[in-house]
Amino acid sequence: MEETKIVRGLAALAHSLRLQVFRLLVVAGPPGMTPGAIAAQLDVPAATLSFHLKEMMHARLVTQERDGRRLIYRAAFDQMNALLRFLTANCCQGQPCLEAMAASCDC
């Protein structure tokens, strides 16, 4: 993954509301959420949410799909996983220890 895309993704998540939105969409999973549902759950004005969703779309962390008159936003799991792979590529001095660490994690 290109470093510029990594920086764009990390910058998008470096805002409290965008991080909350992203985490909410991760929990929602493949069905995604409408902007109205996101705004209601996070108690944020629609215009503010719209701005932040556009920033996250620019970073390719969320996708948007039109379903009739509704917009559905989803976390871009492939992009999120690519970002995580990039960040952990050299963990444990380059040894394949991530699986063992994940297995022992209580999270």
Number of strands: 2
Q: Which fold name is given in CATH as the topology?
A: Arc Repressor Mutant, subunit A
Secondary-structure class: mainly alpha
**Strand arrangement in the largest pleated sheet:** 1-2
Which quaternary structure do these chains form? single chain
CATH class membership: Mainly Alpha
Q: Assign the CATH superfamily.
A: Winged helix-like DNA-binding domain superfamily/Winged helix DNA-binding domain
Task: Domain count, please report it.
Answer: 1
Poorly predicted parts: none
Average pLDDT, to the nearest integer?
A: 89
Radius of gyration (Å) = 16 Å
Report on this model:
The mean pLDDT is 89. This protein has a single domain (3-104), classed as Winged helix-like DNA-binding domain superfamily/Winged helix DNA-binding domain (Arc Repressor Mutant, subunit A, Orthogonal Bundle). The two termini are 27 Å apart. The chain contains 6 helices and 2 strands, in the order ααααββαα. Strands 1-2 form a two-stranded antiparallel ribbon. Helix 2 crosses helix 4 (46-58). It has helices at 3-13, 16-28, 35-42, 46-58, 77-88, 98-104; strands at residues 62-67, 70-75. The longest helix is centred in the N-terminal third of the chain and has 13 residues, at 16-28. The protein is mainly α.
